Amino acid sequence: MYKALNYWVFGGFGPNKTPYEFIDFAKAQGLDGVELTVGDCLSIDIDEAECRKIAAYAKEKGVGLRTLASGHYGAESLGAADEAERLRAVDFTKRYLQIAAWIGAETILVVPGSTHVTWDPSRPVVPYKTAWENSTKSINELMPLAEKLGVNIALENVWMRFLLSPMEWKLFLDQFKSDRIGMYLDIGNCLIYAPAQDYIELLGSKRIKAIHVKNWKGDDCGGTLHGFGDSLLAGDVDFAQTFAALEKIGYQGTLTAEMIPFSRLPDLVLPDQALAEKVVRELNYATITELSS
């Protein structure tokens, strides 16, 4: 199975490392691919020529670029109550889709909407119904371009209090009559609501376009960002059950480690190459141990 690393684990938040440095790191670590992030190692203003150059370099090194990610949607939401903000998020995503097509990525990570960005008190609280309706409207507006470019829009489950249970995700995704719209399942983020295997069983391989691998430990009937620790192997993820569920549905997509140790807050410092190397080792261990058992 295709194993990759997300840029944030290697380069942190911001343009601290170049795509070429990240590709070289992945090659040295024996990874199948990397997940570059728009707004960090890739500028939203990057042109086609530079995208083609990065793609050629990755191909030369034998490193895949199957998915892209972005942290943009915490600031501008596709489900925003404010129409001007919603349209800005749509415009951003159109450019994001074009970058993916230029660089050869098959899937982009998109956050569908939010009702409450709890770590940013400046962001407005949005009624759930409004987030659902406006996110649906935005994705319908983006769908023709995704189909034209041949790029999947994979909606990720993030801690923004919108689309919580696997059944909500199924109902939401089934509105869209396009194979280009699916889910980017984060097997750590979902644990506060339900284990990853429940999402996998209900959604299946047609809806799940990509997977983020991380771990999280709940505490006292709940949990916080500090539950995302230093180790991919320490936490509540049941890798045996998760990989068995993926095998059962015939999943052939990406497995990208995105283990950011928020447990270190307020002293979290990135980039941390030792952390990135550790995450790669643990990703290899988890996949080899469970997929071969």
Q: How much is the radius of gyration in Å?
A: 18 Å
CATH architecture: Alpha-Beta Barrel
Query: How would a crystallographer describe the biggest sheet?
Result: 8 strands, parallel, barrel
| CATH top level label | Alpha Beta
pLDDT under 50 segments (min length 5)? none
**Which whole number gives the mean pLDDT?**
95
Annotated CATH homologous superfamily: Divalent-metal-dependent TIM barrel enzymes
CATH topology-level fold name: TIM Barrel
* Morphology call: globular
| Helix-and-strand structural type | alpha/beta
Number of helices: 9
Largest sheet, spatial ordering of strands: 1-2-3-4-5-6-7-8
Strand content: 5-15%
Number of strands: 8
Explain what the structure shows.
With 293 residues, the chain is of the alpha/beta class. It has one domain (2-291): TIM Barrel (Alpha-Beta Barrel), CATH 3.20.20.150. Helix content is 42%, strand content 15%. It contains 9 helices and 8 strands. It has helices at residues 7-11, 19-29, 48-61, 83-103, 128-149, 166-173, 196-207, 239-249, 273-291; strands at residues 2-6, 33-38, 64-70, 107-110, 152-156, 181-186, 208-213, 254-257. The chain has an 8-stranded parallel β-barrel, surrounded by 6 helices. Strand 7 (208-213), helix 8 and strand 8 (254-257) form a beta-alpha-beta unit. It is globular, with a radius of gyration of 18 Å. The two termini are 15 Å apart.
Provide a compact summary of the structure:
With 293 residues, the protein is α/β, with parallel strands linked by helices.
